[in-house]
Amino acid sequence: LTRNARDFEDLAASLAGDWRVLCLEMRGRGDSDYAKDPMTYTPLHYLQDVEALLAQEGIDRFVSIGTSLGGLLTMLLAVSNPQRIAAAVLNDVGPEVSPAGLERIRGYVGQGRNFETWMHAARALQESSGDVYPDWDITQWLRYAKRIMVLGTGGRIAFDYDMKIAEPFEAPEGATPQVDMWPLFDALATRPVLILRGETSDILTPDTAAKMASRPGVELVTIPRIGHAPTLDEPESIAAIGRLLARV
Q1: Does 121 fall in a domain?
Q2: Is residue 130 part of a domain?
Q3: Domain of 83?
Q4: Do residues 240 and 219 make contact, with C-beta atoms less than 8 angstroms apart?
Q5: For residues 175 and 177, what is the distance between their CA atoms, to the nearest angstrom?
Q6: What pLDDT is recorded for position 178?
Q7: Does 236 reside within a domain?
Q8: Domain count of the chain?
Q9: Are 106 and 170 spatial neighbours (Cβ–Cβ below 8 Å)?
Q10: What is the pLDDT of residues 203-245, one digit of tens each?
Q11: pLDDT number for residue 86
Q12: Which residues of the chain have pLDDT under 50?
């Protein structure tokens, strides 16, 4: 929900020699403009943004790799026009989202914390998310901080997103669509689909992941000792994405 295109730096670099790669920066994140109306921070408006970009770039068929919210948008794109999706990677997300994970996200999104130095920021992330990436050293936490934060105009280190993205999310109906999302996932039928799941994820449960993997053409890969969400640079993730692209 709060991440940006820098999450895909390593993956994009590894694919760019063979594929045209676009890393989308959703409204309110990173270098994208903040929305004038915070109530447009919803999946429907994100979908419209993606549709506009696809039209602008003349893209009529593509492989979609989406983490969390990006995976939900991938399923929505499949519903609106399944033929254009050549394959899909859904990173730690599915048609059922664990309520426990949603409550955890509600607990931190939009808080607007800031830090004096990058090391302070890295230590704070390690303290709050150490259970998600328990094997990381401080160098990895520092790298992570520089991906999801930015040096602000006041000289403080702050999260690189509009704090107002929390406003629609705070409403019960804004947390997750109040519809059966399995038809959205099934719109990807007959396409190669890769499900990546963090072993300790509190968003994508083992039962939901197994149910998704029971569909034809779907591969499920569990990334050990990782929560929500895999960073896509794990050896298991890299190998699985390579297998998927070889099927396209």
Answers
A1: no
A2: no
A3: 5-110+161-246
A4: yes
A5: 7
A6: 65
A7: yes
A8: 1
A9: yes
A10: 999 999 999 999 999 999 999 999 999 999 999 999 999 999 9
A11: 98
A12: 175
CA angle 100/2/110 to nearest 5° reads 80
Cα separation, 69 vs 7, whole angstroms: 13
CA distance 105 to 88: 25
Give a yes or no: residue 42 inside a domain: yes
Q: How far is CA 89 from CA 31, 32, 80, in A?
A: 24, 23, 18
Reported as a single tens digit per residue, the pLDDT across 177-212 is 567 999 999 999 999 999 999 999 999 999 999 999
- Phi, psi angles (nearest 5°) of residue 14: -75, -25
Q: Report the CATH number at residue 70.
A: 3.40.50.1820
pLDDT in the model for residue 121? 98
Q: List phi, psi (to 5°) of 112.
A: 75, 30
